[in-house]
């Protein structure tokens, strides 16, 4: 197998910021991770949006999350012009799954079910984005 130790920090383009997502990105700039919770069905959801994707209610609120969870699945991209990197889904402790990048880790040591913690990574001329690294 090829060696894939901790990769260099990969540049991530700035996310699109909308009226609905602006509170999320403002909090990210402050180092806080927000998710949405529906007050009708009680479920948390990701990606933050004004209407609950589970029950259709418009009764949603912002909630701060510690950003902890487990790797649900992942893939290591070894043939990238920018060098190897890993993406995958993390199931947050609150329940929702989110697509993310994995950073600050030996890519060969990532495992399904592994505990991870959120951190924010700077983007090119935009707010920081959530990424995860092993605990």
UniProtKB/TrEMBL annotation:
<protein>
    <submittedName>
        <fullName>Zn-ribbon domain-containing OB-fold protein</fullName>
    </submittedName>
</protein>
<dbReference type="Pfam" id="PF12172">
    <property type="entry name" value="zf-ChsH2"/>
</dbReference>
<dbReference type="Pfam" id="PF01796">
    <property type="entry name" value="OB_ChsH2_C"/>
</dbReference>
<feature type="domain" description="ChsH2 rubredoxin-like zinc ribbon">
    <location>
        <begin position="25"/>
        <end position="59"/>
    </location>
</feature>
<dbReference type="InterPro" id="IPR022002">
    <property type="entry name" value="ChsH2_Znr"/>
</dbReference>
<dbReference type="InterPro" id="IPR012340">
    <property type="entry name" value="NA-bd_OB-fold"/>
</dbReference>
<feature type="domain" description="ChsH2 C-terminal OB-fold">
    <location>
        <begin position="62"/>
        <end position="121"/>
    </location>
</feature>
<dbReference type="InterPro" id="IPR052513">
    <property type="entry name" value="Thioester_dehydratase-like"/>
</dbReference>
<dbReference type="InterPro" id="IPR002878">
    <property type="entry name" value="ChsH2_C"/>
</dbReference>
